[in-house]
């Protein structure tokens, strides 16, 4: 039986895939139209089994990602409050394999080179358990801002959000990273069921143009990988020119890199070097297919830079770069709100009078375009410290002295999210507002009122 295909799909795409997949082509095309959605649960919001029980939809596990679930039905998961609260990130199941295959560890230096909107970065951060150093870079400024918002929403504390070109990063940070992810811009064939622009943009010429750009990005990124470190390349397209072909060309030009076997996870199929006359070693690459599991498909290749790791690489920064007066103000305000004693370890005051906890020595990022040099904890305005929204989003209720927990249908919640206030006779000071125990943001109590400090740009 031949599947009826969407009329908008390019004939050349169908012809190419049918030629390569043969008997599997119909199952592939049918699966490519499916509209399942994936949710990646955020372990910083609670134990995974509890989170899974608390989300209001029937879900299925994702065989290769313990944090992931998928929903067969089209659910309004993006509009649910739990999305705003960073309880989950909506992500294609096959994209969830990136952090699993990269396997970042809490003590490592990790770079996500093409990170916006932040699906893989927020997953990597969760797997690093808030430790180590994570650079989330995005070359397009507008997209880097979205990345920063998602990093904040998911309560990430160990990431610097950077808006730079790969060349400028390589010039500043040669050999700095244990693990680098290049989730390359591609023709996005795996997104055809939900991205009509990807369909309109697709042509054989675009595929070849993408392959050229991907080779250039990899060439520019290679120097950032530490000897002994690993580089994971991924795309959400099936075109072999953008996958096995790009990696074959990269290995030809970079004898210091080798392709290594991907960790064996369920659902992963070998690369297809024969589709582009690439060397057989490209079987070590991996593909997730839409017709063999949940998700829309992805390609991955794991490379290792040969050689011994050099000595003398920088450590996670534990210094402090805050004037004494600002530190005293911060210590007082944050100390009154938080249960644990406040530390100045890693604390830095930026030129814009914002306070961040960073894991990277400020000298290392000076001069680069850094949107968020770490976890934004407070701002100094008019000689006062204002705790930041990003601080609230990375706290648990037990971290804060004064918490007001609301239910989703509490009218005070709607008022809070609009920036309003209500009567409250409790003690003066900062209060963490939570919903069902998940942080929503700060409020400030005083003069018989609890006033929302929910950021203006997020208000509904
Ligand atoms: N990793 C992201 C995630 O999981 O949410 C998705 C990344 S998307 C597939 C590819 C990204 O590469 C885009 O954000 C795009 O702006 C960026 N990009 C485009 N051209 C680039 C270049 N020449 N160098 C580096 N990144 C580039």
Strand and helix layout:
Elements: H1 11-21, H2 25-32, E1 37-41, H3 48-54, E2 60-62, E3 65-71, H4 81-84, E4 88-90, H5 97-102, E5 109-112, H6 119-127, E6 133-137, H7 141-153, E7 159-162, H8 166-172, E8 177-183, H9 196-201, H10 204-221, E9 225-235, H11 244-253, E10 257-260, E11 269-270, E12 286-288, E13 298-305, E14 320-321, H12 324-337, E15 347-349, E16 354-357, H13 362-365, E17 370-372, E18 375-381, E19 384-387, H14 389-393, E20 403-406, H15 411-417, E21 421-423, E22 429-435, E23 438-446, E24 449-452
Parallel strand pairs: 5-6, 5-8, 6-7, 8-9, 14-15, 20-22
Antiparallel strand pairs: 1-3, 1-4, 2-3, 7-17, 9-13, 10-13, 11-12, 12-13, 15-16, 16-18, 18-19, 21-24, 22-23, 23-24
Helix pairs in contact: 1-2, 10-11
The structure holds S-adenosylmethionine.
Describe the protein's architecture and organization.
The protein has 460 residues and is α+β, with helices and mostly antiparallel strands. It has two domains: 11-305, Vaccinia Virus protein VP39 (Rossmann fold, 3-Layer(aba) Sandwich); 400-460, Roll (Archaeosine Trna-guanine Transglycosylase, Chain: A, domain 4). It contains 15 helices and 24 strands. Helix 10 runs parallel beside helix 11 (244-253). The longest helix has 18 residues, at 204-221. The termini are far apart. The model has no long low-confidence stretch (mean pLDDT 96). The chain binds S-adenosylmethionine (SAM).
Structural class: alpha+beta
Class of the largest domain, according to the CATH hierarchy? Alpha Beta
β-strand amount: 25-35%
* CATH architecture level-2 label of the largest domain: 3-Layer(aba) Sandwich
pLDDT < 50 runs, ≥5 residues:
none
Number of helical regions: 15
Number of E-type strands: 24
């Amino acid at each position: 039986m031949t599947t009826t295909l969407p009329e908008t799909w390019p004939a050349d795409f169908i012809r190419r895939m049918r030629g390569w997949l043969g008997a599997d082509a119909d199952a592939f095309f049918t699966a490519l139209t499916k509209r399942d959605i994936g949710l990646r649960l955020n372990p910083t919001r609670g134990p995974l089994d509890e989170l899974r029980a608390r989300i209001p939809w029937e879900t299925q596990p994702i065989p290769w990602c313990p944090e992931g679930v998928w929903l067969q039905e089209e659910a309004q998961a993006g509009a649910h409050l739990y999305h705003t609260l960073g309880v989950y990130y909506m992500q294609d199941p096959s994209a969830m394999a990136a952090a699993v295959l990269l396997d970042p560890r809490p003590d490592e230096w990790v770079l996500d080179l093409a990170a916006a909107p932040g699906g893989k970065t927020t997953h990597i951060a969760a797997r690093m358990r808030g430790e180590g150093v994570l650079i989330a870079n995005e070359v397009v400024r507008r997209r880097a801002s979205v990345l920063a918002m998602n990093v904040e929403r998911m309560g990430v504390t160990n990431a610097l959000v950077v808006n730079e070109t790969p060349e400028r990063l390589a010039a500043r940070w040669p050999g700095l990273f244990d693990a680098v992810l290049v989730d390359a811009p591609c023709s996005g064939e795996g997104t055809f069921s939900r991205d009509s622009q990807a369909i309109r943009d697709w042509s054989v010429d675009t595929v070849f143009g993408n392959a050229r750009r991907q080779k250039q990005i990899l060439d520019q990124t290679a120097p950032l990988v530490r000897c002994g470190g690993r580089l994971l390349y991924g795309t959400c397209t099936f075109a072999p020119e953008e996958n096995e072909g790009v990696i074959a060309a990269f290995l030809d030009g970079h004898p210091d890199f080798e392709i290594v076997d991907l960790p064996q996870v369920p659902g992963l199929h070998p690369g297809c070097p024969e589709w582009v006359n690439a060397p057989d070693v490209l079987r070590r690459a991996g593909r997730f297919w839409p017709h063999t599991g949940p998700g829309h498909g992805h390609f991955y290749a794991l490379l290792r830079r040969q050689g011994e790791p050099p000595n003398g690489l920088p450590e996670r920064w534990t210094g402090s770069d805050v004037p004494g007066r600002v530190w005293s103000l911060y210590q007082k305000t944050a100390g009154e709100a938080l249960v644990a004693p406040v530390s100045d370890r890693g604390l830095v005051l930026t030129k814009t009078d914002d306070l961040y906890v960073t894991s990277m020595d400020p000298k290392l990022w000076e001069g680069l375009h850094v949107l968020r040099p770490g976890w934004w904890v407070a701002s100094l305005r008019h000689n006062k410290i204002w705790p930041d929204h990003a601080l609230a989003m990375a706290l648990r209720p037990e971290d804060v002295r004064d918490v007001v927990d609301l239910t989703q249908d509490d009218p005070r919640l709607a008022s809070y999210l609009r920036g309003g206030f209500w009567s409250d006779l409790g003690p003066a000071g900062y209060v963490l507002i939570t919903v069902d125990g998940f942080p929503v943001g700060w409020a400030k109590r005083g003069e018989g009122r609890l006033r929302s400090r929910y950021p203006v740009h997020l208000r509904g």
